[in-house]
């Protein structure tokens, strides 16, 4: 067991620097673990090696519950919301309570269920491409395609009117931006929650053929909890996938020989690791990770992108190589909290890349790569916009 306890500046994203930050490699090379500050004077352990990240994400001595003392946060509202703020935010719960939500939701996101949804995904993708082609020979691939596709799919699945998409997309941007103040994030979260609470009340009176109505009928989740579940699924269901889509298009345009290969999705998920900073944790008992003693009450931040770029787990990790065996990546997390919607994300990404490049084979980026507005200020990595032409 080591006792280095070295403290470093937080390895932030910044313009002109690749993602993941090059400091991640230095952190992995050190013995044990390192600490950093997320602001406010509190320090957290950074976990960067692939095997260590998987170990901590499955250790019962480590908690996802923000009510535990020492749970880390990016400011007052910049982490996992407390239960009294957003009831039903089940990724911030530990077993067995977490299992109650997961057991109810898993049947809605099985491979079979997503296969049944495939015609709707294809219809949405084709519809957005039709709209881009009808509008001319240029587009912003984020606002015109990468964002609307998963937004349309998740709203249809949940039973949320797509007419309100600009509202929840705008509020989500506030929630996932480090540039937002605590008050701005708190207000945005409350507005989304109020909207969903009203929608659920309507569905209690007039149920429809959608996920929210089915969950209400099942009765395992209370209407109040369902508002938080819906908020989580709505945000996760469009924002992360939109980032994956746009970053993946850039990578494929630079590696056209791989377009059409069925293996590209797993490698793109590993390579970009957009949800690098979301898996905040705290030790509830003393535990050893990576040869380091983490004491009860100490916060932990597993760096998902660092783990997915660990050359001990993936040879030449910065290289885009769909031929590698990449299914052991942790882009969706690991263990009981592994992303519930991963089958949906894979189906959307696969459909998007196949259809987009079949229908617009001359697609090109319409700006220098170094000038593209990457989300250096976001909890999730991605692009604010992506100008393209054909």
Assign the structural class, choosing from mainly alpha, mainly beta, alpha/beta, alpha+beta, or little secondary structure.
alpha+beta
**Can you give the mean pLDDT?**
93
What is the CATH domain class?
A: Mainly Alpha
What overall geometry do the principal axes of the alpha carbons give? globular
User: Could you state the CATH homologous superfamily?
Assistant: Cytochrome P450
C-alpha Rg (nearest Å):
21 Å
* Strand arrangement in the largest pleated sheet: 1-2-3-9-6-4
- Which fold does the CATH topology refer to? Cytochrome p450
**Domain count:** 1
Helix content: 40-55%
Determine the number of helices (DSSP H or I, runs of at least 4 residues). Answer: 13
Beta-sheet strand percentage? 5-15%
User: Can you write the helix and strand succession as a string?
Assistant: EHEEHEHHEHHHHHHHEEEEHHEE
Number of strands: 11
First-residue to last-residue Cα separation: 57 Å
Unreliable runs? none
Largest sheet: 6 strands, mixed
């Amino acid at each position: 067991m080591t006792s280095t306890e070295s403290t470093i500046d937080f390895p932030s994203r910044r313009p002109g620097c690749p993602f993941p930050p090059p400091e991640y490699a230095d952190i992995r090379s050190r013995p044990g673990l390192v600490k950093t500050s997320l602001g406010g004077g509190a320090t957290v352990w950074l976990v960067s090696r692939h095997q260590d990240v998987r170990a901590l994400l499955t250790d019962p001595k480590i908690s996802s519950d923000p009510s535990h003392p020492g749970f880390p946060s990016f400011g007052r509202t910049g982490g996992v919301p407390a239960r009294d703020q957003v009831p039903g935010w089940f990724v911030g719960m530990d077993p067995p309570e977490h299992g109650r939500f997961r057991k109810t939701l898993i049947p809605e996101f099985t491979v079979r269920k997503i296969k049944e949804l495939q015609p709707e995904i294809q219809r949405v993708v084709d519809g957005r491409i039709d709209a881009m082609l009808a509008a001319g020979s240029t587009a912003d691939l984020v606002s015109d395609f990468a964002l609307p596709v998963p937004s349309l799919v998740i709203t249809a699945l949940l039973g949320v009117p797509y007419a309100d998409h600009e509202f929840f997309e705008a509020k989500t941007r506030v929630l996932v931006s480090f540039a937002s103040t605590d008050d701005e994030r708190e207000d945005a979260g409350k507005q989304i929650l109020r909207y969903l609470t009203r929608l659920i009340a309507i569905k209690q009176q007039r149920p429809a053929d959608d996920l929210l109505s089915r969950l209400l009928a099942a009765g395992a989740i209370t209407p109040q909890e369902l508002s938080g579940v819906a908020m989580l699924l709505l945000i996760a269901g469009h924002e992360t996938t939109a980032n994956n889509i746009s970053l993946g298009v850039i990578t494929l345009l630079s590696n056209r020989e791989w377009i059409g290969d069925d293996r590209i999705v797993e490698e793109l998920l590993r390579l970009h690791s957009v949800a690098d900073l979301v898996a905040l944790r705290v030790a509830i008992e003393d535990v050893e990770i990576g040869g380091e003693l983490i004491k009860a009450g100490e916060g932990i931040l597993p760096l998902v992108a660092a783990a997915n770029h660990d050359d001990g787990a993936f040879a030449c990790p910065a290289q885009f190589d769909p031929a590698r065996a990449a299914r052991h990546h942790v882009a969706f997390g690991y263990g009981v909290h592994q992303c519930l919607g991963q089958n949906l994300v894979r189906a959307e990404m696969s459909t998007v890349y196949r259809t987009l490049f079949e229908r617009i084979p001359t697609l090109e980026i319409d700006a220098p790569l170094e000038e593209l507005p990457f989300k250096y200020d976001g909890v999730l990595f991605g692009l604010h916009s992506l100008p393209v032409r054909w």
